[in-house]
Write a structure and sequence with these properties.
The chain is of the alpha/beta class. The protein has three domains: about 80 residues, SRP54, nucleotide-binding domain (Four Helix Bundle (Hemerythrin (Met), subunit A)); about 200 residues, 3-Layer(aba) Sandwich (Rossmann fold), CATH 3.40.50; about 140 residues, Orthogonal Bundle (434 Repressor (Amino-terminal Domain)), CATH 1.10.260.30. The chain has 21 helices and eight strands. Strands 3-2-4-1-5-6-7-8 form an eight-stranded mixed sheet, with helices on both faces. Helix 11 links the parallel strand 6 and strand 7. Helix 8 packs parallel to helix 9 and helix 18 packs across helix 20. It is flat, with a radius of gyration of 26 Å. It starts with a helix and ends with a helix.
Length: about 450
């Protein structure tokens, strides 16, 4: 997400580069370029106006005009103002002091409301050790109840349903009674949506709200709608007084305007963002990290969190020992690739890394199946060959290639990559590992 916006902002910053001092004319031209980049990204024009004013006022101040590296100070100011526009800090879900916590999910059809009910349930189950219950209150859309049951089963969360004959208000109240009886401490209500906002929809949602008094009303908004997403959020907020937003499809080809505009226009925070199709593809929305991604700075903290969730700490300690002893084998290499796979698609991981050219990545299709092919080659080797790849001669290469359906060239390529990885890790274990760990607070 935001690759196009990041590229355009980078071009705008070029106005400030290679200049020892900045004139007001330089700053005015740079602000004009930043303004155009934001408007083309479908950011609300009021947001753009306030943002440009805030940056301009700080940019003509002493901190920039007297700075030794003005371009870096401009980027710093833009980063801070982007963070402020999006809310400043991550907003947590407010859990009820007396369970169950009741959460209504609302939104238009096609925004991913039902699937995000399950994602949210899995999030609470895994992160907060809650016992969520999904309640099916969409009695209008064909197969909506069945869809909720399917996604609920995928994440291991029960679904309460009473069919499509009763009113959504009755079903919601009965679902909460069921949760109290069976000890479910979070209730997530999947409400009906429409292709567009209408009076009937809003009246029904208002009745459900009055009947169950939810602790949170979260609006799912499709980020790919751009400025329309902000209009939808404003209307729902005016009618229901929502408590937060789940911005879906942030991994899609979106111009980024919604993320930068929703908080300003509605006054309500983006609490979560959907970043993929899988049940665990839901993240807490961090305005500061999103600003860094937009500016092409990467997102090291989210990358570390993904690693902590996915990597086996015992295996990591064992790997540290092997690196110190210089006994890293092809079997270990295979294990590392498998753990990397569990962190998610490789392109999404690369986008979080600082210094990676996001514009260059935009048209690059990273084939995750390459790991499958490498895995097949290693599994075609004998245990001895995995421990001592130096014994793999031409006849062994032919046997390995035939055993996994690959070419000898593929086997050669893998062995070369492994050799390079061994050298890199040997050097890393000597002088880089401790520095890296201290840098990111891992040691």
């Amino acid at each position: 997400m935001h690759e196009t916006l990041a590229e355009k902002l980078s071009r705008a910053f070029s106005v400030f580069r290679n200049k020892g001092k900045l004139s007001e004319a330089d700053i005015k031209e740079g602000m004009r370029q930043i303004k155009l980049a934001l408007l083309e990204a479908d950011v609300n024009f009021k947001v753009v106006k306030e943002f440009i004013n805030a940056v301009s006022q700080r940019a003509v101040g002493a901190e920039v005009m007297e700075s030794l590296v003005p371009s870096q100070m401009i980027v710093k100011i833009v980063n801070e103002e982007l963070t402020a526009i999006m809310g400043g800090k991550a907003e947590k879900v407010k859990f009820a002091s007396k369970p169950p916590t009741i959460i209504m999910l609302v939104g238009l059809q096609g925004a991913g409301k039902t699937t995000h009910c399950a994602k949210l349930a899995k999030f609470f189950k895994d992160k907060n050790e809650k016992r969520p219950l999904l309640v099916a209150c969409d009695v209008y859309r064909p197969a909506a109840i069945k869809q909720l049951q399917v996604v609920g089963e995928q994440v291991g969360v029960p679904v309460f349903t009473m069919g499509d004959k009763l009113s959504p208000v009755e079903i919601a109240k009965a679902g909460i009674s069921h949760a109290v009886k069976y000890g479910n401490d979070v209730v997530i209500i999947d409400t009906a949506g429409r292709l567009h906002i209408d009076e009937t929809l809003m009246e029904e949602l208002q009745k459900i709200k009055a009947a169950v008094e939810p602790d949170e009303i979260l609006l799912t908004v499709d980020a790919m709608l751009g400025q329309d997403a902000v209009n939808v959020a404003k209307t729902f907020n005016d009618m229901l007084d929502i408590t937060g937003v789940i911005l879906t499809k942030l991994d899609g080809d979106t111009r980024g305007g919604a993320a930068l505009s929703v908080k300003y226009v509605t006054g309500k925070p983006i609490k979560f963002c959907g970043v993929g199709e899988k049940p665990d593809a839901l993240e807490v929305f961090h305005p500061d990290r999103m600003a860094q991604r937009i500016l092409g700075m990467g997102d090291v903290l989210s990358l570390i969190e993904k690693a902590e969730q996915s990597l086996d700490m015992k295996k990591a300690e064992e790997m540290e020992r092997k690196l110190a002893e210089n006994s890293f084998t092809l079997a270990d290499y295979l294990d590392q690739m498998d753990q990397l796979r569990h962190m998610g698609p490789l392109d999404s991981i690369l986008k979080m890394m600082p210094g990676v050219n996001q514009a260059a990545l935009r048209d690059v299709k990273i084939d995750d199946r390459q790991i499958d092919r490498m895995e097949a080659i290693i599994l075609s080797m004998t245990p001895l060959e995995r421990r001592k790849p130096q014994i793999i001669n031409s006849s062994r290469k032919k046997r390995i290639a035939a055993g996994c359906g690959q070419k000898v060239e593929d086997v050669n390529r893998l062995l070369k990559q492994f050799e390079q990885t061994q050298k890199m890790m040997k050097q890393f274990s000597k002088d880089g590992g401790k520095k890296f760990g201290r840098r990111f607070g891992l040691q």
